[in-house]
Design goal:
3-stranded antiparallel sheet, 17% helix, NE0471 N-terminal domain-like
């Protein structure tokens, strides 16, 4: 007996951002939440900047044009926080 599993790529259909977390709602009915602190740019952004986002790549990610931040659904699912850039001291 053969079993075939249908693999569906996760796609974002909507997003909600609070002062504590980012929640992505997926087209298949799931939701994924990560701490807002995972994105230092979003953590430091104003509420207005956080709420100005757009779905990119047919739902594979979210882009915030005001702060030039992108988060992918894969990063949210696999636990990949955005690292702060290194500051070199001379």
């Amino acid at each position: 007996m053969n079993t075939v599993a249908l693999v569906v790529e996760p796609r974002i259909s909507d997003l909600r951002i609070t002062d504590a977390e980012i929640t992505a709602y997926l087209v298949d009915g799931r939701s994924v939440s990560v701490p807002l602190a995972w994105s230092w740019r979003l953590s430091e952004a104003t509420s207005e900047q956080r709420n100005h986002w757009e779905i990119i790549g047919d739902g594979i990610g979210i882009h915030w044009p005001d702060i030039d931040e992108d988060i992918s659904i894969e990063g949210m699912l696999y636990g990949a926080p955005a690292p702060r850039p290194l500051v070199l001291v001379k």
